[in-house]
Amino acid sequence: MAEYRPDFQPVSGLWTLPVVETVDQAVSMRTTISVPEEGALASEDVDATMVAGGTQLEQTYGPNHRPLAYVSTGSVTAVAYFGWANPGNLTPEQVHVRVRDETVTFTLGPTGDLPVA
User: Fold this and answer.
1) Is the Cβ–Cβ distance between 56 and 50 less than 8 Å?
2) Separation between Cα atoms, residue 69 and residue 104, nearest integer Å
3) For 42-83, how does the pLDDT look when each residue is reduced to its tens digit (9 = 90+)?
4) According to the 3-state scheme, what is the secondary structure of the chain?
5) Computed from CA positions of residues 110, 19, 104, 59, in that sequence, does the dihedral angle turn out positive or negative?
6) Which positions ≥6 away from 91 have C-beta within 8 Å?
7) Residues contacting residue 95 through CB under 8 Å, at least 6 positions apart
């Protein structure tokens, strides 16, 4: 399994952070989006496209299949879950995240080593 954690970026006036994981022939992602209040985004307000090995992967699920979750710990965060088929086990390169009417591109660099305690 490989995990990619690019830096936060603003999109549609909100901050978002995707976390991408690859396992066998699938790529999954959860993206967190800072929002002013619970319910501020609907499932159709969020989408994503994954590029791996120069190819756009086929999305197998997204917010239309799994509604947005909300977490509140002093601030409110919307969480969207995505999955893509990756039959060629291609290395993810970019993910394009759309929130409302704006899209931001995250470049997925090499996976880092996880710290050991």
Assistant:
1) yes
2) 21
3) 999 999 999 999 999 999 999 988 889 999 988 999 999 999
4) CEEECCCCEEECCEEEEEEEEEECCEEEEEEEEEECCCCCCCHHHEEEEEEECCEECCEEECCCCCCCEEEECCCEEEEEEEEEECCCCCCEEEEEEEECCEEEEEECCCCCCCCCC
5) positive
6) 2, 22, 52, 53
7) 18, 20, 29, 48, 49, 50, 51, 105, 106, 108
* Stated length of the chain: 117
pTM for this entry: 0.89
